[in-house]
Amino acid sequence: MSQHETVWVVDDDRSIRWVLEKAVEKEGWACQSFTDGESLLQRLQRDKPTVIVSDVRMEGMDGLALMREIHAMHPDIPVIIMTAHSDLDSAVASFQGGAFEYLPKPFDITEAIDLVKRAMEHAREQQQEIVEPERQAAQEIIGEAPAMQEVFRAIGRLSHSNITVLINGESGTGKELVAQALHRHSPRRDKPFIALNMAAIPRDLIESELFGHEKGAFTGASGQRPGRFEQANGGTLFLDEIGDMPAETQTRLLRVLADSEFYRVGGHTAIKVDVRIIAATHQNLEGLVREGRFREDLFHRLNVIRIHIPRLADRREDIPRLLNYFLGRAATELGVEAKLLRQETVEFLASLPWPGNVRQLENTCRWITVMASGREVFINDLPPELIAEEQVRETGSHWVDNLKFWADRELTQGHQGILDMAVPLFEQAMIDVALKHTAGRRRDAAQLLGWGRNTLTRKIKELGMVTEGGDDDGDD
Ligand SMILES: Nc1ncnc2c1ncn2[C@@H]1O[C@H](COP(=O)(O)OP(=O)(O)OP(=O)(O)O)[C@@H](O)[C@H]1O
Questions:
Q1: pTM
Q2: Domain boundaries of the chain, sorted by first residue
Q3: Residues with C-beta less than 6 Å from any ligand 1 atom
Q4: What spacing in Å lies between the alpha carbon of 64 and ligand 1's midpoint?
Q5: Whose CA is nearest to atom 13 of ligand 1?
Q6: What is the CA(174)–ligand 1 centre distance, in A?
Q7: Which of 42, 166, 328, 442 sits in a 20 to 30 Å window from 154, CA-based?
Q8: At CB < 8 A and 24+ separation, what contacts does 41-44 make?
Q9: What would the CATH number be for the domain defined by 6-135?
Q10: For the segment 197-246, what is each residue's pLDDT rounded down to a tens digit?
């Protein structure tokens, strides 16, 4: 790119200015940095950069106010807003304020430069759409991990639209939380958000739950009742565990989505609704479609925009912050002082597999708050099943890792047939330990190993092992 490309950087942090300046100049672009928004605006009276990179929080005018001023004069200048990590509010506000992108701090410098490049290309292509920012108080979603930042971006990008979204992620990863955020940051924010979990309702009640029923429509339908679709009119209907929706309901839902109208169970009058659908599943919907368990046409209707929420084990860097957050919340809920995790406890917790994802971690924090005796929490204060599980995993993976290391080294040295070497060593080790546990009694040792006694005797011979008990236990 030529010298005509100019990047302006505004941040009250000197080191950020310096790093960006160096990187921008290295790309062959001109760089001008400012310590505050006011001086940038002054300069903007007479000059115009290609791209502006601004911090969101600054003394005096903040980044979002600055962006408004910039865009009032030059709607076509792309502005990249730097935000603190996991600050969903600013992220969304910056998109709503018309930011080209937001850049969570601390950032990778190549990532920052890539963004600037994209902004330059974009500036060449088109003008930015300007919308006044509307700040919304959002329930906190914690996520510094790159995959969560992607989720935040998606929420920001979708904040002007009513588009159907399909959220994928294991149970407890925060699908409902994200669905709520999508709603809260959408044009429907003042209308209802209604959630319904397909897996939690008896199958034969799903239709009446969704579409309501007329009096006497089925046994037990004593009065007329509106369904969730009606309740969600104008707003958002969140259908959790959509993969569990019965086939007949899928067919009905598809029709509702196509016609924006439906009939209550047992009803004859069509009811018009305007509902945005956000669906979620932990299942592989494509797989269900292939197996004929989910309607393909419905799948395509729902799968317009897909948001994937990673497993907690794939964003371990967020665990310490989540622990803090949930310990604080649990303490407030229970009206007690918040527990403090020792560093090794945090590290231990951050290393666990968390099959129940964020929900399991949240529950663990409640458990700790109630059960741990002191204020400071040691590893031994944790729920016993977490500690036990970890011990098995630790020792379990350790020797396998060592074995892999050994095999790798043997192969690197050009050895062949390594199982011939490894298997006898493995068997000898197991036999040794088993015999130690039974004070040399082979019959019992064989049982510990899961072999018949004759097999053990034969193995000991084949391996040429010398054992204390000799050839026989003397017990037969
Ligand atoms: N990133 C996060 N930050 C803060 N809280 C979170 C986060 N993710 C999940 N939670 C909390 O964890 C719990 C589980 O989240 P949620 O109900 O959204 O998960 P889900 O994926 O919809 O689960 P399921 O599929 O089992 O219904 C909730 O209490 C939610 O508030």
A1: 0.62
A2: 6-135, 151-308, 312-388, 417-476
A3: 140-143, 169, 171-177, 240, 282, 358-359, 362
A4: 29
A5: 359
A6: 3
A7: 328
A8: 41/66, 41/69, 41/70, 43/8, 44/70, 44/73, 44/74
A9: 3.40.50.2300
A10: 888 787 888 888 899 888 777 766 667 788 899 999 999 999 999 999 99
Mean pLDDT taken over the chain: 86
- The pLDDT tens digits for 105-114 are 888 999 999 9
Which residue minimizes the CA distance to atom 24 of ligand 1? 171
Q: Whose CA is nearest to atom 8 of ligand 1?
A: 174
Which residue, by CA, sits nearest to atom 29 of ligand 1?
359
* The two domains 151-308 and 417-476 share their CATH topology (first three levels equal): no
Residue in the structure block whose two tokens are 């809920």? 333
Index of the ligand 1 atom closest to the CA of residue 241: 25
CA–CA distances in Å: residue 290 to residues 188, 299, 306: 34, 11, 19
Distance, CA of 122 to CA of 407 (rounded, Å): 52
Q: What is the ipTM of this complex?
A: 0.97
β-bridge pairing 101-105 and 271-272 = unpaired
* CA dist list (Å): 335 to 170, 331, 338: 31, 6, 9
CA of 8 to the centre of ligand 1 (A): 39
Q: How far is the CA of 177 from the centre of ligand 1 (A)?
A: 6
CATH number for the 417-476 domain, one of 1.10.10.60, 1.10.760.10, 1.10.260.40, 1.50.10.10? 1.10.10.60
Say yes or no to pLDDT of 137 above 50.
Answer: no
Q: What's 312-388's CATH class?
A: mainly alpha
